[in-house]
Amino acid sequence: MENKPKLTIVKIGGNVIDSELELKAFLKDFAALSGYKILVHGGGKIATKIAEGLGITPVFHEGRRITDKPMLDVAVMTYAGLINKDITAQLQALQNNALGFTGADGNMILSEKRKNAAVDFGWVGDIVSVNHELVKVLLLQNVVPVFCAITHDGKGQLLNTNADTIAGALAVACSNDFEVNLLYCFEKKGVLSNADDNNSVIKKLTFDTYTQLREEKVIHSGMLPKLENCYDALTKGVSTVYIGSPEMIKQGDTTCTQVSL
Amino acid sequence: MENKPKLTIVKIGGNVIDSELELKAFLKDFAALSGYKILVHGGGKIATKIAEGLGITPVFHEGRRITDKPMLDVAVMTYAGLINKDITAQLQALQNNALGFTGADGNMILSEKRKNAAVDFGWVGDIVSVNHELVKVLLLQNVVPVFCAITHDGKGQLLNTNADTIAGALAVACSNDFEVNLLYCFEKKGVLSNADDNNSVIKKLTFDTYTQLREEKVIHSGMLPKLENCYDALTKGVSTVYIGSPEMIKQGDTTCTQVSL
Asked: What is this enzyme's catalytic activity, as reactions (chains A, B) (predicted)?
């Protein structure tokens, strides 16, 4: 059997990005990870603040944000500009040769504008393909790619794309060349069996248990698409998937949830 | 003698970026250029507009802008976010595998905060080094690097850096591995012998002629640092340097100024 090099893909969400101190602490841990690695980051509340500052009113449909043109511009400015470059510069200071990406850069993540939806969510893209060849070239140069939640349609249009989905698609695309460990960091310690108790982490969530807990409504709302991404990755060749707090990337941390088939 | 591959480095200024149509036309011409190439772009008026929108008041000292922290954030958002990603996505649509960079990305351009100046211009960086090895790896992958006017100090701080200087430093750093042709595009057809006559282009500006015209004050103000960059590049190994309008990148254009030693 072929021995593939290991690749760790870490996704962090808005909660880490919104706190300067938490982000700094996380980046220090991330920088200390040995081997090939990729960071994927979400947006946080900065985009909302900048949109407000510019007098742009966010548009919602049943609680879900619509990405109209002004909001897309703000997302590009904030995610690809402010946040992505701050993270990149900080990782450089920690001796990681970080390189920031939108999906347009190097044609890394090609997507298409979401269609056939009952509602037009605006400039939102669903992933079509990942340029894993270029990812590989860069990783072998010891570059640490840092992805934000912006992709492109190949026709000149940037699109807003869910960061969880980006992390999953990267993990799947790289699993031909690498043994991929995918880590989803969020605000809880893992998948909880009791939403009110942060210590009720399910250590190992098999697909059977997941199906059962979903039916019992123990797992619901935001966790569902997150876990769908996990199982999708696992069925498509990703070796291991974990969900937990940013702390979990520290060596020896065992508080998180391992998602398994 | 070694036969180096050719590399074209094109710098465009704010005037092209401020016009959606001009930028589109330029990018079409740039995309059609054969061989290895790099694009460097300035900022344009969008940053000023966004700063105004956010209620940030620009600070000036004797007509020169001071880059305070809020203005640096706006520069990062606008140059590295909005403009750089728009250009990258447009070039992708033109079948150029563009990849956007600040100096922090891939540690491409390391700079240090300007010091010992009579005035503190704020978060402005002077270039220390260029990661030409990574530039070469990417060019050989047929990637088209697109640089904006942001660098970093290696300690986590992003810095505003003149785009002309970035283009010059890239050209010099790449001239070991490539035969570099450096093209500075600006709002005139070339260096003029009569500032009021756009048709008075000096076809070939030798260093002797430059020195003479500078003493006669025919060449003055903004043209001086631009030409200093040109002669610096030429003395440090860059093969050819041209100054002219964005039109000059079209094949067969002969209206611009060739700067020569």
From this structure: N-acetyl-L-glutamate + ATP = N-acetyl-L-glutamyl 5-phosphate + ADP
Burial of B169 (0-12, 13-18, 19+ CB in 10 A): buried
Kindly provide the ipTM of the predicted complex, given to two decimals: 0.95
- Classify residue B159: in a domain, yes or no: yes
Residues of B in contact with A57 (CB under 8 A): none
B64 neighbors B33 (Cβ within 8 angstroms) = no
SS (H, E, C) A162-210: CHHHHHHHHHHHHCCCCEEEEEEECCCCCCECCCCCCCCECCEECHHHH
Distance of CA B133 to CAs A150, B21, B109, B243, Å?
A: 28, 35, 12, 27
Please give the tally of structural domains in chain B.
1
Among A100, A154, A155, select the one facing B105 at the smallest CB separation.
A100
- Domain extent, residue A234, equals 6-259
Q: How far is CA B90 from the centre of its chain?
A: 19
Contact B23, B239 (CB under 8 A): no
Calpha distance A53→A55 (Å, rounded) = 5
Residue B238 lies in a domain: no
Residue B44 labelled as part of a binding site = yes
CA distances from A229 to A87, B29, B54 (A): 24, 41, 37
Contact call for A143 and B106, based on CB within 8 A: yes
A119 has a chain B CB within 8 A of its CB? no
B145 φ/ψ angles, rounded to the nearest 5 degrees: -70, 135
pLDDT in tens, B11-62: 999 889 999 999 999 999 999 999 999 999 988 789 999 999 999 988 887 7
Type of residue numbered A244: G
CATH, residue B149: 3.40.1160.10
Domain assignment of residue B202, yes or no: no
In a domain, A1, yes or no: no
